[in-house]
Design brief:
293 residues, alpha/beta, five-stranded mixed beta sheet
Length: 293
């Protein structure tokens, strides 16, 4: 109870100070829907606090930066139809499958990405689209990010884009990162990825996993890995439609418990047989509270 009271005090202080210290001078830089949510959603405010070790001063700076980004990218209004169709057709970014801890996987197939200043803003909006879509549906469950660097070359390497993705978890989506898995990092890019470690900060470097076909299954089981990673997943990305349109599922130790259709079928059988079988569902894992500074 004392811990809950302390969280409530911190949350209220954060709200009050943001209203008095930031909103008057920057109201035009924020979306009113974010300001409204800040006053209503305790868990959202708490995630910002957790990400900044309960330092209200640092939390306020983080909320300010996040809110300005959300308005710049029109995050609330990002929809499938608001983005160019070709972004989805490329298939460089999408959500699919689960890691061994039951966290949804956000895939970045680097070989399909080409650095291009003319389209960079739209590509960044696509990242925001997927993360906001996930955040609205899964309400705080962490993601695992996989950088699939198989068959990549220097033309695919875009440190600005990589830094942006990391920044989304550092600032814009607090407490949403489970781990970053980098598959088959080319030796020529080792120096570049030392920068990635520096962006993550000392507290979160342990969440950066560099793997190959021999050890990736320490984090993701074969059923959710494509064949080139030594897995058995036959999933092939194509568009349309959006992949994993119905991905909201409970989490368990090894992934999703059941799909919506499976659940409905089970309920129908239960009604017909007038039986109440014991549930085999397991509670989901708790979010890892790590600060990226």
């Amino acid at each position: 109870m004392a811990e809950q009271d302390n969280r409530a005090v911190l949350i209220n202080e954060t709200r009050q100070r943001f209203e008095t210290e930031y909103v008057p001078a920057k109201s035009d830089k924020y979306d009113s829907r974010d300001l409204e949510r800040l006053q209503q959603d305790d868990s959202w405010v708490d995630n910002f606090l957790i990400w900044r070790h309960d330092s209200v001063d640092e939390t306020l700076k983080m909320i300010d930066e996040s809110f300005q980004w959300r308005k710049e990218y029109a995050v609330h209004d990002l929809t499938e139809s608001s983005l160019p169709k070709w972004l989805f057709e490329v298939g460089a970014l999408y959500l699919h499958g689960y890691d061994k801890e039951g966290h949804k996987i956000f895939w970045f197939k680097v070989k399909l990405h080409t650095k291009d200043a003319k389209t960079q803003f739209e590509k960044k909006k696509l990242v925001a689209f997927w993360l906001e879509r996930y955040a609205r549906r899964e309400h705080g469950k962490p993601l695992t990010v996989v950088f699939d660097m198989a068959e990549t070359g220097l033309s695919n390497m875009d440190l600005d884009f990589v830094r942006y993705i990391i920044g989304c978890f550092k600032v814009y989506y607090p407490n949403y990162l489970s781990k970053i898995v980098i598959f088959e990092l080319p030796w020529i890019m080792n120096a570049a990825f030392k920068l990635v470690k520096s962006w993550l900060g000392p507290d979160a470097v342990g969440f950066l996993k560099t793997v190959n076909k021999n050890d990736i299954q320490e984090y993701i089981s074969a059923e959710y890995l494509p064949p080139h990673m030594g897995g058995t997943d036959t999933f092939k990305y194509y568009y349309p439609p959006l992949v994993d349109d119905d991905f909201q599922t409970p989490l368990c130790e090894n992934g999703p418990i059941a799909s919506e259709d499976e659940t409905e079928s089970k309920e129908e059988i239960d009604m017909e047989n007038k039986e109440n079988p014991d549930s085999n569902e397991e509670p989901g894992p708790s979010s890892k509270k790590v600060s990226l500074k």
